[in-house]
Structure formats: structure tokens, C-alpha cells
Amino acid sequence: MDLAGLLAYGLFFLNLVGIYAIMALGLNMQWGMTGQFNIGIAGFFAVGAYTSAILTTGPSPTWLGGFDLPFLLGLAATVLVCLPIAWLVGRITARLRTDYLAIATIGIAEIIRLFFLNEGWLTNGVRGIPGIEKPLGTGNGGYLLIVTAFVALIWLLVEMARRSPWGRVLRAIRDNEPATAAAGKDIARFRLQAFVVGSCIMALAGGLYAHFVGFVSPEAFRPLYGTFLVWVMLIAGGSGNNLGAILGALVVWLIWSSTEMLAGVLPTDLIGSESAFRVFLIGVLLQIILVSRPQGMLPERRPPMPGEPR
Amino acid sequence: MVEVIQLLINGILLGSILALGAVGATMIFGVLRFAHFAHGDFMAVGAYFALSVVTVFNLPVLAALPVAMAATAGLAVAIDQLVYRRIRRVQPVILLISSFATALVLRSLIQMIWGSSNQVYQTGIQLPWRIGPFTLKPDHLLIFLAATGLVITVHLFLTRTRLGKAMRAMSDNMNLALITGIPADRVIMATWAIGGALAAAAGVFLGMDTRLHPVMGWTLLLPIFAATILGGIGRPYGAIFGGLVIGCAMELSTLIIPGSYKPAVAFAIMVATLVFRPQGIIKGTV
Amino acid sequence: MSLLDAQGLYAGYGGVDILRNTHLRLGADEIVVIVGPNGAGKSTAMKAVFGLVPIREGRVHYQGEDITNRPPERMVTRGIAYVPQEANVFPSLSVLENLELGAYALRGDHRPRLEKVFEIFPRLKERRNQQAGVMSGGERQMVAMGRALMVEPRLLMLDEPTAGLSPRLIDETFERIREVNQLGIGVLMVEQNARQALAIADRGYVLATGENRYEDTGPALLANPEVAEMFLGG
């Protein structure tokens, strides 16, 4: 690869890292800070991507397009559309125990995917929506500035939330729910808030993703890409730590990309399918992290809480 | 009416496949206190094991069934020893994430070993029997009978053997089981073996009914969890009941909504259970 | 030689000692009662002896053998049985299955043991196919004690066996405990109904904040005005 090619690849790479970092930050709000086990990330990611795709593209005979809204309005709409959906989902599931929440969220993600797959009038079904443009005619380089700005903005917001009294309550819920309830906090409400905020951040990442790739289809929102990689990123980076979430996104996407090269080098006879081999490697990697360093690269640094045991 | 009865027949068939998956999932849930997200992929692995036996030794599917069940049981125990056992004491949720990773690893292994395309055990079309206005494939009857036989075997195991009773006891009250001197490690291994074997059987039956595909198990994971929750966690009999209810509901739903939304029906029943009766129809343990 | 001899126990959860230099001793045929205010570490003492709470310092000897921090299944095979205060039956299993599982760690034929338990608790024989979870509190306590007796223990440890029972059932439970003891089984129990328990006990310990305060025969402790005032409610 020559220098220009390398540079182009680097820009492509960093854009996706940024988009995944935003999702990891959203997940960190739910899992890292509140202890909510959401494995339906792909669902909210898809809601954001499709919302933005439908609202910002030109007219089409095969799907509900033609709104031609500007980029930023499309992004704002991802949050607005995700808000009631996440609120409803959170409302139903906020009281559920961790494992039930996990099952419920994966079901919701699957139903959202089925919806986008089957409601062709809205989404063009399996063929997907093409021609989603980047704003102001930017290329990958210009777009990277936009993505980076969003990463910085979301990081700032999430980090401020983490240090705020609100964030302390979330952590208290995560660490000791009965004691927090006894302290008079409305646990269901705090959980719901964290769930909705986290999900909307994921939807925003979906909107950024749609404009970066220029094309959305249900295939992109299988649990692997939407959900699993984000989890690996957060766990590897260090759940509870917002910088860890971003670092995790960088490192895991680097590994994920290099598995592509590794799979390209190894003979096909040996590994069968290239994409399957990559998934296999990343799955094994997660298992190794979980067994050997479950706290991640940057472990959570917790401000001590008054009255907290230990 | 004819249509409804035909759908019920299909529903019972799907239900018995779900029940086999759900019995294993509920026992793992009950004994180890976590939702095992790789359970659907155990099913798929079992189905592919059987495919290898069928193609290599040129045997009928039912002869390959015991081999697939044993191999998947071994695989389940191995994964537990290699991965889950090491993180069991850390945090139950870490087990959830880990089982999610296991699911992906198994699925990608299937793709690497057996390929991503659809496969079948037997080519050629099986002529259905016509009983009055209804149709029934010989395979369907076979699946139903074999599933019933397996469920009865599990029932006898759970109620007549020491290990089976110990398994129910651990699912009931883990602390007391420990105090009583029940060897937890052995019971856990047995739970994985049985869960894996039953999942394999469910996968083989699913493959006989439709076709083999790397995501065949994953698509049934949600209905299996729905059956598990509906029947009450840790309750094998509840899981059988839950499987049949979910299977019939999914088939009957095609009368009103498009068939592609079948998983949504299972999901709706599950959410309704969680909201209105979280302990399940038969009171569960966790 | 005493059946059980625990010396200088320091034990607790997460690095916090609940027991501080606790001693317990029990002769082969004795009933020994531990009494004391809430939070005194009574239950913790039993759990520590049985290997359920890690002992940081001190030793536990049973029939002269060091059993400190042994896992529970080893205790059971040595002849020590423990009945926790709550959740002490397997609710979805039948009475018979509860009893059978009691002898899980033992080899050989359970039937003679089962007959012995049914002799002590005839009611359990009548209701042997009943699900334990739907039985009354008193019956569940019988199932729990029956389960413990299935290992043919030399030492039976009971954590508040009369908690939540009606006065009539309390009397009956103490009566049963006496019968069990007369079979040559040492009984170590924690009790809130301290007066009644001390009345049937050979000896008693008064624990407070994890330390031994008093130690004497049952009648002597009952007669001790300080103990009566501070720990037996006047």
C-alpha cells in the first residue's frame, strides 16, 4: 500500500473508531455506570441509522424518502425518534433483573431488525437505502473532523454526568441497589433515565454511521457488528471508565481490522470463511480478556462515596 | 378451522423442538443462575455434528442423533471447564457476556468448518401423509415421538436418580445443597452435559424439519428463553409447557400477522410474563 | 475428649471480624446452647465451625481432628450436620426427596436411616410425598432436621430451630431435640427462646459482640442474675 492509500485507509479506520467510540460511551452509561445489561445496542444503532437515512435522502419510488433534510437535522431526528422508543423499552424493562433485561433487549433489537427488513415501503427492505451523503460534500477527512467533534462532545457530556450527583446515584444503584432504595432514591426512574440517554447516544452513532457509509441495510445491524463489538470494546477498555471506552474502541477496531489482514494472509482452505475466522478470533479475544483481565485496560477510578462500605 | 388445526399440528412440532432447548436452558439457568446465550448455537453445533455423521458414515439421521448428542454434551462440558468455570465466582453478569462470546465463536466455527450455505440431511422430497384434510410428514411424527421419548427420559432422570434429584435441589436452593454436601462441581458438569445433549437433539430435529444453517439456533434463542421464562426458571416441566405454548402461539399468529414476525410473538409473550408474572407459570427459583 | 472444640476463633466476612476470640466446646452427649443479643455472632460462630464463614485465626477440632475451614461436604462425611435458620428445605422437592438428599454424601443403603428419621418424626412418614415448599413452618423445620439426621451425625448444629413457630410447636421442637440428643447425638444450637433452650441444655454460652461473656451449665446461667438481666430480658 502506498502512502496515499495508507492515509486513506487511516481516515476510513478512524471514522469508524469514532463512531464505535460513541456507541461504547452510550453503553458505558448503561452498563459501566448503572449496571444495565443492554445487548440490544444494534437495535438503537439501527433506529438512528435508518432515521437519518430516510430523512436526509432524496425522493425514491421504493421507500419513504424525499425529505431531503440537512445533516444536522437528521442527526437531531435520530435522538428524537429514539427517545420514545427507548423510553418505552426502558419503561417496560427498568425493573427487570440483569439477565432478564439482557434477554429482553436482545429481543427488542431483533424485532427492530425484523421491522426494517419487512417494512419495505419505509426502508426498501433487504435492498437497503443507498445514496446517503456526507454533509457539505466532505470526504472522509472532513467527516473525521465532524465525528471527532461528536466524540469529544459526547465524552464531555457523559463524563460530566458521571461526576455529577446524578452519576453518583447511578453508581450507587449499580453497586448496592437495596441500600440506594433505602436512601429514598427512585431507582426505576434513575435507571430509565440512564437507559434512555445511553440508547439515544447509540442512535446518534447510528446516524453518523449512515452518512459515513452512505448506505444502510438490515444486514449491518446484526448483533455482531452493532452489539458484540461494542461490548468487547467497553470490556477491553474498562467498563465504568469513559476514556477506557474510547481507548477500547480504538484498540478493538485495530484488532478487528488486523484480523482482516491476517485472514487475508492465511490460506482459505485452512480457515474456510474469512469473516467467520475474524469473528472467531474476536470472540476468543473477549473470552481471554474476561478470564484474565475483566477490569479492562483502564479500570474504573471511582471517586469515593460517603458512607460506602470498603 | 382446518387451518387452525393444521397450524396447531405445526405448533406442537415447533413446540417440542423448543421444549428440548428450553429444558436444558432452564436447568442451566436454575443451577448456574445465568441466561446462557450460546444455547441456540449449541443446537446448531449438534445439528452439524449429526450432518457429519450422516455424510461420512452414510447413516440415517436418527442413528446420528446419539452421536451428536454425546459430542455436544462433551463440548458443553469442555466450554464450561475452559471458560465459564473460571469466571463463575467473579460476577454472574460476566458469564452472560462470556456466553454471548461463546455463541459467536461457535457460530463462526460452524461457518469455517461446514460453510455458510444451507444444507440438508437428506435430499429428495418426503411425501406427506394425508389424514382427512390434514397433512403430516413422516419426519414430523418421528420428531414428535423422539422428542417425547427424550422428555420422558429427562423426567425419569430428574425424579429417579440421585444426580437428577441433586440437580433439582441445586436449582431449588444452592446454599442448602452445599450444606447438605451435594458436590456442586459434579452436578454442574452433569447439567451442562444434559443441556448440551438436549440442545443437540433440538438442533437435529430442527434440521430435519427445515434445513441446516449457521444461524439456525440463534434465531430460536429468543423463543427458547421465552419458553423458559414462561415456564418458570429452573422448572423443567414448566419449560416443556412453555415450549409448547410458545410454539403453538408462533404458528397460530400467522393467521393474523405476517409470518416473518413470528419471533416477535414469542417476545411479546415473554415480556408479558416478565411484567405480569415474573416468576413464571410454575413458580421459578430465581 | 470433647466432640467439638473451637478455640480462639476470629472469623467474618470481607475482612471484618464478627467473631473475636470465640471459644466453644461440646461433649459427646451434650446439648449446648449459644445465646446472646442480635449481632453477637451466634449464627456466624456456627457457620464458621461448619466451614461456611472463613476462619482467619483459631482452630476447630472435631473428635481430635483439625477441621478448620474444611469445605461443608467434608464436614458432612465426618458426621457433622447443620440446619440453617431460613430456607432450610428444598421447596420443590418432596419430603422423601429432601430426606434422601440429606444422605447424598454417604454411601450405602439409606432405608434404615430413613426409618430412624420416620421414627422420630412420624408426621414426615405420613406426608412423605408432599412438596416441602407448601408445608407449614413447623413441618418444614421437621423436614430440615430430618434431612440433617440422614447423615447419622455425631454432631447436629441447629440455627434457631424454633424461630417463627407457635408456642405449642416450640415445645414440641425442643422435645424432639431432646429425643435426638438421647440417641447419643451432640446438639449445638443458637436460640432466641433462650430461657426454654437453656432449660433443656447441659451447658450454655453467652456471646456478645463476638466474644464469650459467660459459660456455665444451663440452670446456672438461668439462675445468674446478670445474665438474666442483660441477655434474657429481665
The share of residues in extended strands of chain C comes to: 25-35%
Largest sheet of chain A: none
| Percentage of residues in helical conformation of chain C | 25-40%
- Computed structural class of chain A: mainly alpha
Indicate the radius of gyration of chain C in whole angstroms. Answer: 17 Å
Helix % of chain A is over 70%
Can you count the helices of chain C? 10
- Proportion of β residues of chain A? under 5%
Low-confidence stretches of chain A: 304-310
Order of helices and strands of chain C: EEEHEEHEHHHHEHEHEEHH
Rg of chain A to the nearest angstrom? 20 Å
Q: Structural class, from helix and strand content of chain C? A: alpha/beta
The largest sheet of chain C, given as strand count, sense and whether it forms a barrel, is: 6 strands, mixed
If strands are numbered along the chain, what order do they take across the biggest sheet of chain C?
A: 6-7-8-3-9-10
The oligomeric state of the chains shown is: heterotrimer
Query: What overall geometry of chain A do the principal axes of the alpha carbons give?
Result: globular
Number of separate helices of chain A:
13
Q: Specify which chain pair forms the largest interface.
A: A-B, 42 and 45 residues
Q: What is the tally of beta strands of chain A?
A: 0
